[in-house]
Specification:
Organism: marine sediment metagenome
InterPro entries: Glyco_trans_2-like (IPR001173), Nucleotide-diphossugar_trans (IPR029044)
Number of helices: 12
Number of domains: 3
Helix content: 40-55%
CATH class of the largest domain: Alpha Beta
Largest sheet: 10 strands, mixed
Domain Glycosyltransferase 2-like: 13-153, 179-306
Radius of gyration: 21 Å
CATH superfamily of the largest domain: Spore Coat Polysaccharide Biosynthesis Protein SpsA, Chain A
Protein name: Glycosyltransferase 2-like domain-containing protein
Structural class: alpha/beta
Number of strands: 12
Shape: globular
Distance between the termini: 39 Å
Keywords: Membrane, Transmembrane, Transmembrane helix
């Protein structure tokens, strides 16, 4: 594909930052180095960082538009500030812990222009070693959460064997099971998907005007799946575009267990189920989580006295599982869309 040259600004890149100064600097460097042939602007939303991120932007990237929040407003609310201010035809939501691996942004916009029914486009996410990160999936449902909570893929050794099992069983039991076992399913071609990761998400302005902005009742996690679900209900498509590649640094390097994010993720999961599938699904999800995490908690409790140097990490997991099991699904979040 040949890069096109636009006569007017069509793209606004929105980057939400919270205490990520060094990562943000690298992200901005990659944006200005890689994106060519497009008139674009960058807007950074700072969620009350205490690491002098805003001073770095003002000094090193004076062309960047900056929104400075006093507090951490969460992913959805802060990004919505920028979405409402932007007048661009396309908005690219980009995590600060990413860097552009190639200059295929023009091709993304060309694809969107040629496919006006597509409201959201996701990219290929890479680890620092070049391996592929999961960047799209089926909409969350009780079956996907059953597979995740009980970690059935661990019973099958080796990625190759897992993919073969997924192909065989997926043909009988459906694409959800196939995608679960095939970690990097169809990563080489453009295809329609249910939802894409908010780490790098291109959205059409007309689709936002039709569907609305991100749901601010999600503080963090699941707001991307919720947005794509609402797009689908309104008739817009979400697609995966593998030719635009982004290195996502947190995906593989962040191996330590963080109880706070683990708990917040499950709060958002409950809210997603409550909003889109009803309280019966929330009740069944709570049963799945309670039974699955009880087994994990008991297993960790057995090995905890003998864990040595890993005791602190196991202690975090014990705490995290207990807190998640104590969440009452009906009290989490409120749908405001």
């Amino acid at each position: 594909m040949q890069a096109r040259v636009l006569n007017e600004m069509e793209l606004e890149i929105l980057i939400l930052s919270y205490n990520t100064r060094e990562l943000l600097r690298d992200c901005l460097d990659s944006v200005y180095q890689k994106i060519k042939g497009i008139e674009f602007e960058v807007m950074v939303i700072d969620n009350g960082s205490g690491d002098n991120s805003t001073e770095m932007i003002k000094t090193e990237f004076p062309q960047v538009k900056l929104i400075e929040n006093r507090d951490n407003l969460g992913f959805a609310r802060a990004n919505n500030q920028a979405i409402r201010q932007s007048g661009a035809r396309y908005l690219l939501l980009l995590n600060p812990d990413t860097s552009l691996a190639n200059n295929s942004c023009c091709e993304m916009l060309r694809f969107m222009d040629e496919h006006p029914q597509v409201g959201i486009l996701g990219c290929r996410l890479l680890n620092t070693d070049g391996t592929i990160q999961p960047s799209n999936s089926s909409f969350p449902n009780l079956f996907t959460e059953f597979l995740r909570i009980f970690q059935l893929k661990r019973l099958i050794p080796g990625l190759g064997l897992r993919e073969k099992v997924g192909e065989r069983l997926g043909g009988i039991l459906g694409s959800t099971l196939r995608e679960y076992f095939r970690v990097y399913w169809d990563s080489e071609r453009i295809r329609e998907v249910d939802w894409v990761s908010g780490a790098c998400l291109l959205v059409r302005r007309k689709a936002v005007e039709d569907v609305g902005v991100l749901d601010e009742s999600f503080f963090m996690y699941y707001e991307d799946a919720d947005w794509c679900y609402r797009m689908r209900k309104a008739g817009w498509k979400t697609c995966y575009f593998p030719f635009f590649e982004i290195i996502h640094y947190v995906g593989k390097s962040d191996s330590q267990f963080n109880p706070s994010t683990f708990i917040e993720r499950h709060k958002s999961m409950y809210h997603y189920f409550r909003k889109h599938q009803g309280m019966t699904a929330v009740f069944l999800l709570r049963l799945l989580i309670f039974s699955g995490f009880t087994l994990r908690w008991l297993g960790l409790l057995v090995i905890y006295p003998f864990s040595g140097e890993e005791r602190q990490e196991l202690g975090k997991k014990l705490y995290g599982y207990l807190k998640v099991m104590a969440i009452k699904g009906r009290s989490v979040g409120r749908a405001n869309q």
